[in-house]
Amino acid sequence: SQQGEEDPQALSIQEGENATMNCSYKTSINNLQWYRQNSGRGLVHLILIRSNEREKHSGRLRVTLDTSKKSSSLLITASRAADTASYFCATDAAGRRALTFGSGTRLQVQP
Amino acid sequence: NAGVTQTPKFQVLKTGQSMTLQCAQDMNHNSMYWYRQDPGMGLRLIYYSASEGTTDKGEVPNGYNVSRLNKREFSLRLESAAPSQTSVYFCASSEARTSGRNEQFFGPGTRLTVL
């Protein structure tokens, strides 16, 4: 079963707008990571947030983590057409030795 | 550095045929992983290796075998391919022995079709 579930499954916005994606998970985690996948390519790591952190920034990316709600959000500000991709959250759950990936959010940024 | 490389990029097999997917990384990482990705889904872990000489089953290991040949290379073998194994296969590596502590680096994937 998927540990992380992203919401929405698909998102279409105009260039310049902000995009927000959410991830919910079920068990306690050590950290949560976000990855991007361009069509036909492998995944690329974007950002890691540890369980004792609440917010993290990297360029136009902002990630929040609410361990009480077992949820995380990824905000991409001032989106660009090049941000068009699928975005996955992945959890490093306590007691497990590997990441568990969600099913992803497909983001389409219209120029 | 090439990062994580995978061969082949594409493969078509008939049911019952066997093949080995090759993966190599040049980042001196300890942990390596094999995932499969089916349409509209996230990645599911097949097998992983926390260090040279060790391998462990992931979420969907049935029908697959792996070999951690050395620190650089981690191969995935399908002994008798089935149509249900049609998928895109990704290899990944990370620095940590206990996986999940660090980011994973992914190869470009192998697109496998089993007829």
**Number of E-state strands of chain A:** 11
Q: Spans of chain B with pLDDT under 50 lasting ≥5 residues?
A: none
What kind of oligomer do you see?
Answer: heterodimer
- Which structural category fits the helices and strands of chain B? mainly beta
Percent helix among the residues of chain B? under 10%
Please bin the fraction of helical residues of chain A. under 10%
What's the mean pLDDT score of chain B? 92
Spans of chain A of at least 5 consecutive residues whose pLDDT stays below 50 are: none
What is the approximate shape of chain A? globular
Which descriptors apply to this entry?
heterodimer; A: 111 residues; mainly beta; six-stranded mixed β-sheet; five-stranded antiparallel β-sheet; 0% helix; B: 115 residues; seven-stranded mixed β-sheet; four-stranded antiparallel β-sheet; 49% strand; globular
Protein described:
Chain A has 111 residues and is mostly beta strands. Helices cover 0% and strands 58% of the residues of chain A. Chain A is built from no helices and eleven strands. Chain A has strands at residues 5-7, 10-14, 19-24, 29-37, 43-50, 55-58, 61-66, 71-76, 85-93, 100-101, 105-110. In chain A, the strands form two sheets. In chain A, strands 2, 4, 5, 9, 10 and 11 form a six-stranded mixed sheet that branches. Chain A has a five-stranded antiparallel sheet with strand order 1-3-8-7-6, with no helix packed on it. Chain A is globular. Chain B is an all-beta fold and 115 residues long. In chain B, the strands form two sheets. In chain B, strands 2, 4, 5, 6, 9, 10 and 11 form a seven-stranded mixed sheet that branches. A four-stranded antiparallel sheet of chain B has the order 1-3-8-7, with no helix packed on it. In chain B, strand 7 (64-68) and strand 8 (74-78) form a beta hairpin. Chains A and B meet through strand 4, strand 5, strand 9 and strand 10 of A and strand 5 and strand 10 of B.
